[in-house]
UniProtKB/TrEMBL annotation, chain A:
Coiled coil: none annotated. Belongs to the RNase PH family. GO terms for biological process: nuclear mRNA surveillance; poly(A)-dependent snoRNA 3'-end processing; rRNA catabolic process; U4 snRNA 3'-end processing. One of its GO terms (cellular component) is cytoplasmic exosome (RNase complex). InterPro entries: ExoRNase_PH_dom1, ExoRNase_PH_dom2, ExoRNase_PH_dom2_sf, PNPase/RNase_PH_dom_sf, Ribosomal_Su5_D2-typ_SF, RNase_PH. It comes from Tribolium castaneum. Residues 22-153, 157-221 form the Exoribonuclease phosphorolytic domain. Signal peptide: none annotated. GO terms for molecular function: RNA binding. CDD domains: RNase_PH_RRP41. This is Exosome complex component RRP41-like Protein. Pfam families: RNase_PH (PF01138), RNase_PH_C (PF03725).
Automatic annotation (TrEMBL), chain B:
The gene is AUGUSTUS-3.0.2_06450. This is Exosome complex exonuclease RRP44-like Protein. SMART domains: PINc, RNB. InterPro entries: Dis3_CSD2, NA-bd_OB-fold, PIN-like_dom_sf, PIN_dom, RNase_II/R, RNase_II/R_CS, RNR_Ribonuclease, Rrp44_CSD1. Belongs to the RNR ribonuclease family. The lineage of its organism: Eukaryota, Metazoa, Ecdysozoa, Arthropoda, Hexapoda. It comes from Tribolium castaneum.
Automatic annotation (TrEMBL), chain C:
PROSITE patterns: S1. It comes from Tribolium castaneum (Red flour beetle). One of its GO terms (cellular component) is cytoplasmic exosome (RNase complex). It is found in: Nucleus. The keyword rRNA processing applies. This is Exosome complex component RRP4-like Protein. It holds the Pfam family KH_6. Belongs to the RRP4 family. Residues 82-160 form the S1 motif domain. One of its GO terms (molecular function) is RNA binding. Keywords: Exosome, Nucleus, RNA-binding, rRNA processing. Its main location: nucleus.
Amino acid sequence: MSKNRELLSKIGLRQDGRRADELRRIRCKLGVFTEPDGSAYLEQGLTKVLAAVYGPHQVRGSRSKAQHDSAVVNCQFSMAVFSTGERKKRPRGDRKSTEISIHLRQALTAAIKVELYPWTQIDVYVEVLHADGGIYPACVNAATLALIDAGIPLKEYVCACTASLANNDVPLLDVSHQEEIIGGPTLTVAALPMSGKIVLMEMSQRFHVDHLQKVLDKALQGCKDIKSILDEAVKSHIQDVGSSTGWASTT
Amino acid sequence: MFTTKAFIKKNKVGNYLKHVREHYIRDDISCGLQECETCLPVESFLSPDHENKCSLFTSNHYLILDTNVVLDQMDILEESVIGNVIILHTVLNEVKHRSLPIYKRLCAVIENPSRHFYVFINDHHQGTYLQQNEGELINDYNDRCIRAACSWYINHAPKQKFVFLTDDSANRIKAQKEDIPSYTVSEYVQNLNTSGLTDKLSRKDFHGNDFTKDVFPNHLSNVELLTGIREGKLLQGTFRASRDNFLEGFVNVDSYEEPVIVQGRAGLNRSVDGDTVAVELLKEEEWVCPSEIILEDEGVGDESVDDVVTKENELQKATKKKSGAKPTGRVVGIIRRKWRQYCGILQGGIDGVYQMFVPADKSIPKIKIETRQAEFLRTQKLIVTIDSWPKHSRYPHGHFVRALGNIGDQTTENEVILLEHDVPHSQFSEEVLNCLPKMPWIITDDDVKKRVDLRHLDICSVDPPGCTDIDDALHCRPLADGKLEVGVHIADVSHFIRPGTPLDREAASRATTVYLVNNRIDMVPALLSSNLCSLRGGEERFAFSCIWEMDQNANILSTRFHKSIIKSRKAMTYEEAQLIIDDKTKQDALAEALRSLNKLAKIMKQRRLVNGALVLASPEVKIQMDSETMEPLDVEVKKLFETNSMIEEFMLQANISVAEKILEEFPDCAMLRRHPVPPATNFDPLVKAGRHLGFEIRVDSGKNLAKSLDEAVNTKNPYLNTMFRILATRCMLQAVYFVSGTYQKEEYFHYGLAVPLYTHFTSPIRRYADIIVHRLLAVICGADSTYPDLLDKNKTTELCQNLNYRNRMAQYAGRASIAFNTHGNYKMRKVTCCMSVKTPCKFLYHDMAWNVPYLWPKKAKRPIFLNTMKRTRHKKPEVWLFTLLTPL
Amino acid sequence: MPQKIHIRLAAHRINPSIAVNRRVPKIFTPGQVITEQNEFMRGHGTYEEEGFLKSSVAGVKEQVNNLISIRPLKSRYNGEVGDVVVGRVTEVQQKRWKVDTNSRLDSVLLLSSVNLPGGELRRRSAEDEHMMRQYLQEGDLISAEVQSVYSDGSLSLHTRSLKYGKLSQGILVKVFPSLIKRSKTHFHNFYVGASIILGNNGFIWIYPTVSNAEDNAGGFVQNLEQVVSRPERETIGRLRNCILALIQSKMMLYDTSILYAFEESQKYSVAELLIPEAMVDVAILTQDRLSMLENS
């Protein structure tokens, strides 16, 4: 069956009606919880993610983790039982979520100005409510928003995006779950879009180095597009809250 | 720019899963009309200049098609009279889902700019997207979408006329209610001012003698079939019709080792060779044995079935309840039709518009067609396709697609063979020819720098007479301390065929050069195959060399590969080479080299045979043609010289060396060739035949098989051994190409050659697999770089599948061509042989590959090939008259 | 007593925003360039890269002479000397308590910075060190004042005033620190019969007004025996719900806004105040009254 399906039709539309270089619809919201210091909800297509940030706060538990020159970033990724088509128990700390947690930490540590807060810890909790491809990028993007909401200083936004290759020729941006199944290799890139620095790159399978550049360029372009969408959301959120508080104590 | 609509699908994979997918609705999809000013301009082949000349309408118009029109009337759509057609995306998807071949044909039409087709993506367009209602069937929903798109077009471009063609009357009535001008295809086509097109209309049913008595039992509905299969009451399998008995067939069911026999009209129940069917097993006491009689359909029309009834009785008698009855069943429904286009001729002696078509493939039933040009068509080979097979009709209904040419013409017959075996044989396109190097082609200094110059070596080639595509050459020279240097030089085709070019794609699709008796279908254009890549004598050519250092006992001491430039001293035939070797007076370097090679080859062959390699003679038949009339004159079995096996040995060794090398470097994506060990049951006929003639054939291992074959010699009958070997060949499985990463190491084994690793390297001019191997090897040598597809396991596996398929087909086509021409050859000497069906049954072997049955009466010295095309029934029912292929 | 529980779909959620269109200052987001010049000093929420002064948080620009800083709308509590905070004791250590004050690091309350029972000038003896847990133990809530800020950003507190000390009966509401408006006093006794401590760190303590102010002197006594009357409890509950209503709509908290909200909430019962519509309604009414006050 899947052989009959093509990632990109001859007319240039994908299965869901997007063109090759179009992102899925991104909707996001900051400050969805009151308890954590910062929180965000993000939808990338049907992939839905909640992120909550606690901190920076005193290192709890074993004090030896604390570092004298930077804050410790602690990430925890989890998937809701109902997040995929099949309802199944997902024990915490399985291989996949541990891996994503580590990758998340890698991407976020690159953006957070950790050197400002020695001896402290920043906790980032990410929960996937619905998985429809591109889980990791959605988590990174949501976590960025939550960090901004928490007022934690960042060098800049950190955004992530996937890209794949259709018909061995055309790079596809932001692949959905269906496309992940049909398709070939998926390249996941997390980057600091303004400076163009890549902080994490992962490939689902081997593909030829000749294609790498164009797929990577496409993914980076995707990160930039995502950044401007997030930026807009942040600005409107700040404007909203600021207007309510009356820009208190603004001099 | 877009919005999301999620929809939910239920899918059953053990348990219910919920699928939610995005569906973006766009506002940037164009209608494709050139005149339209509101839509974004887009590449569209629709053109106001094209005119659909249909007398139903006064003005020009655009056509919108329903799915059933595309599925059933593809032959009409391929006619260039019809243009300015808008294909809705809904329709395209449905077609793709229902029939992949039709979809491909439709795509070919859409991509042709002169046909003025346009695909309108209605399901993502904001004006035409509809949401599926709850409980609405998918078909109704699609129909609704199609009508909505029609209405949208009518409102969108009020100045243009749009016509909706559908053969679904319910949809047509609904469309008319919505003020969409709609017609059936036949209404439309009959009013086109072009004759001959009506023949090509697909016929679901012929009017007239309808509602007569049913000839076949009903098929079960789809739901009943699925539940039946799930509950295990019914079996699903592929139907294979018998070639000799039109009332018998077999269904290969996965869970059964032996095929299920289906017999009789009711048993077969309208299944056609290749269909996926559902069978119901009969009770064990009703089981029968496979028939060994030949029954031929002699019906001339579908009015009466009386003759079938008598034959059914005959069949029943012949197969009834002896010992050894096999599982028997009857077909109760068709799960998937595998109808294709069939070559054949019209049956003579029928008047009127309804004609019977007799397919060349004997496993396909006759097809009833309607035509107004029967007189002309009777002289032609035709292509016909099946449209339907209603239960009240004895024969399937079809329609005429096109004529190939006069019956009996060599070109027509070749065309038939090529078509029946799915051999791509069109001329090379302009695009492909553009990839060829410009003539005159010269070797530049740059080329010399990159290659090892071997022009000083005494290289020669040995090939069959008349060979123009010489892809291998050899050399041999003594080294110090008694060692020998042996080089195999293979034409460097991969230098000219660069990956990804149209030329490369075409060659990959053709996969192999196909040799017919008097025609050759090249894999690559002639400039390469017969000139630039052909290692002709006395000309400087690029080669890929495999050079060994050997000792006098033919042990390989070292191997190296590199690209080179060579100059063959001489292109010889086997016979010439043999003469040089035998002529002791010749003492020049070339003769010495040939002698050394010959000596080495003998040692190598001996060693191979000891290891258990099989010698499976498949007599190569050479047909001499009259150069002017192209009539076959004589058939001769090719003579074999020592030099034949000499060349063969070195080619085998080169292939083995290369296989080892590429597997070492590319353990994951090397293209190799394996020959699986056949299952023991495959050898049953051979063992039986051996026992019958008093020989013990051991098949437990390749080595033993080879040994017992060698021992099965009857001095009185020299042909017997060859016969055994032919029979053994038939028991083998096909050797296939594969990608190293996809099998276990033990499975790499080549059974026939008894080597653990094998590949094809030595004939890149006529085999695509060799080109891939060349590329891999070039990467290893550092002479070339990789490209993505070369290292992609899945892509290469796909490629292998195509190569295997094409190779098999090419082989069949070649044999069919020989068979046809040998038939023709003995046309003059009509020897008839009377025999009773009962007695010679045991000796009636069916040579599947040649499609020729043969007899081997006990007293005869060699088998008698029978010409089934020319068999007639004697007055007594058990006696048949055959025309013999082999003279007695 | 049957309780009404309101669960609603995300789609039916109401927008609590009551933003009024005021002059919107320029908003900076992380990574955005603030200025090219180098003559400015970089303050909080900014960093320098390749000659540009860039923002590291999302917020608005504040400039004091040459010092540019970006203030995020929400962050952990940044303590300043003199701030009133409410905190919870997390640890008892040698001669000090650790107090969670919602800042980045736990604050410190030195044994020497508290008024021990028995007079201000009492000497701290070794015995006192052993008695520390008697005065304050883990989990206790205190009110205190920021005495100084250490170099790593952690705070040193003191309770050397009668108003500070251990908190007894009442409720704690945690809000984002930026929603607390700085004012002269953060202790308010409302005429309605309850008092409130608006900790600068976002912890708000609501408690019944104590008629006799001398009773809580020293601040290490907890009278859990005394029964708070139902009307008092209702008032406290209503105050809490009003504060929740205000913070849901991101309104600043100070005595006037809370009092107005309290007055405007009278048409709802205490329980009804948890319904989002009612909360928004209260917030809007409060907002109106505040703007009237401002304009008058």
